[in-house]
Amino acid sequence: MDTLREILEILRTDIYVGKNRAANIRIMEKMLLILMSITAVMSLINLTGSSVILEVTSLILFIGFTICFVLLKKYENRRIVILLFSLIMVVIFTYYFIFGSSNGFACLWLIVFPYAAMSVIDLKWGLYSSAYFFLLSVFFFWTPAKQFLQYEYSETFMIRFPILYFFSMLVAIRTGYQLHRASLEQLTRIDDLHKAVEVEREKNLSLAMQTIISISHAVDAKDSYTSEHSARVAQYAKMIATELGWSEEKLERLYIAGLIHDIGKIGIPDAILNKPGKLTDEEFAQIKMHPEIGHKILKGYDALEGVTDSVLYHHERYDGNGYPTGLKGESIPVFARIIAVADAYDAMSSNRVYRRALNDSFILEQLETGKGKQFDPQFADILLRLIKEGKIK
């Protein structure tokens, strides 16, 4: 009774066995296709006692099965394929049943149909189709409706066939149910594995974020006037990208890029970073090396794909006059273009060792003037709008 309840529950929930077929089921599919092909060919060869219509029907059966199996491999909507398969089975085999194709031999293939349908194709629709053929055999073999049959089956055959078919259907239900249950158990194990992997990924991401934040704090600590600079740049960059409708995963990577965009400053002497006066050309040349230093530090970290390029190119200019490589326009990675405008804004709005924070009107003017020159016009416009709307202060 418990097994019957589980089978009924499977039918009620309408879950398909074929969605995650194991290797043995794929083999069974091929075997069934070969079997049906042999049946069709045998019917075509054995012309004795068979009409041309029946032979054409056999050919249609073969072509129909071939189409169904091709669609099962390639078509995403399995329900349509299953309905098509069931329809072919119902129409063709009903015709075979009534007209006794191949001297009644074709009718015997119905014995293996429930197993093939429920195990290979689908438990629910296999049961429906199998029940139809059982009722059809009872109707034509055990009632006065037998007079409408176009083929004269033996009396013994008509008595025994529905009973044999019924037991075949019971075995098929049990087998289909076991395969279905095994499939569900496999899905559960896969789901548990995915959850475990996701938990580990979250742990690793959390650890990585803590490390990145610590690195950004270490960079900011080298310059007392740029405390929390990296965190603000990361936040501004994320706000700009949010306006573009980016996914959470992409926004997270951009945020990480913002946090560590100045990591290369670890390799710049404190005396240069904290120099209150104007830098010499040589000192400025050292400052300009920090993108390349940062890129070398992060190079090889697969988890930071795309982020390392942002570190290298965040001082490139839209007009091609930036450093270290002189990239121009949209050849500059998109993360780097967003961080460039966010970095410039925070640099102008923060106190520096060599000057106080600039006033708002001057900052807005510089951002407007820099569009298409220093900054990507699209990202500069978004930042200007966010400032004017009071979302960035």
In summary, what is this structure?
The protein is mostly helical and 393 residues long. Helices cover 68% and strands 0% of the residues. It starts with a helix and ends in a 5-residue tail after the last helix.
List keywords for this structure.
single chain, mainly alpha, 68% helix
Describe this structure in words.
With 393 residues, this protein is mainly alpha-helical. It has helices spanning 2-13, 23-45, 52-74, 78-99, 113-121, 123-141, 155-221, 229-242, 248-259, 270-273, 281-287, 290-298, 307-313, 334-349, 360-369, 377-388.
Overall mean pLDDT stands at 77
Oligomer: single chain
SSE order, one letter for each helix or strand: HHHHHHHHHHHHHHHH
* Low-pLDDT segments: 10-22
Count up the helices: 16
Secondary structural class: mainly alpha
Distance between the termini: 69 Å
Query: In percent, how much strand structure appears in the residues?
Result: under 5%
What integer value in Å does the Rg equal?
36 Å
The count of DSSP E runs of length 2 or more, i.e. the number of strands, is: 0
Shape: rod-shaped
Major sheet summary line = none
Helix content: 55-70%
Write the layout of secondary structure elements.
Elements: H1 2-13, H2 23-45, H3 52-74, H4 78-99, H5 113-121, H6 123-141, H7 155-221, H8 229-242, H9 248-259, H10 270-273, H11 281-287, H12 290-298, H13 307-313, H14 334-349, H15 360-369, H16 377-388
